[in-house]
Write a structure and sequence with these properties.
The chain has helices at 4-13, 29-38, 83-96; strands at residues 17-25, 45-51, 61-64, 69-82, 105-112. The chain is of the alpha+beta class. Helix content is 28%, strand content 35%. The longest helix is centred in the last third of the chain and has 14 residues, at 83-96. The chain has one domain (4-112): Alpha-Beta Plaits, CATH 3.30.70.120. 17% of the residues are buried. It is globular, with a radius of gyration of 17 Å.
């Protein structure tokens, strides 16, 4: 009998897989995660990162001595999905990550060459 995880990966081999990385403001991450989970996207990774998005207010901005510039704590969201699901994920992120600014974040889409499950 074929393990469900192995079966899923064998199906992925026949499909194009995308990684989506989004850098968004910290105060928008909860809405983005809820929208993605409601649409069936799970296995999300969320990481605090220092970035140079425009701060929403003065409290959000810090000065980085290492970088020699103003930075904010942004959220980096990562997910992997089939190519057919990528547009939906991108639209959900765009819709729920809006802050009212022209530069509210960035979304990157990357082709994944191989996906290997870690068992045990």
């Amino acid at each position: 009998m074929l393990d469900e995880g192995v079966f899923f990966l064998k199906l992925l081999w026949r499909k194009i897989v995308k990684e989506i990385k989004a850098f968004i403001h910290r105060n928008r991450i909860t809405d983005v995660i809820h929208a993605l989970k409601e649409a069936g996207f799970c296995n999300l990774s969320i990481v605090d990162v220092k970035g140079t998005l425009k701060a929403l207010d003065n409290k959000e901005q810090n000065y980085s001595v290492e970088l020699g510039s103003a930075v904010i704590t942004e959220m980096k969201l990562e997910l992997v999905c089939e190519e057919t699901q990528a547009d939906e994920a991108i639209q959900l992120i765009q819709q729920h990550a809006r802050t009212g600014q022209t530069d509210a974040g960035w979304i990157y889409v990357i082709d994944i060459g191989q996906a290997i499950r870690i068992d045990g």
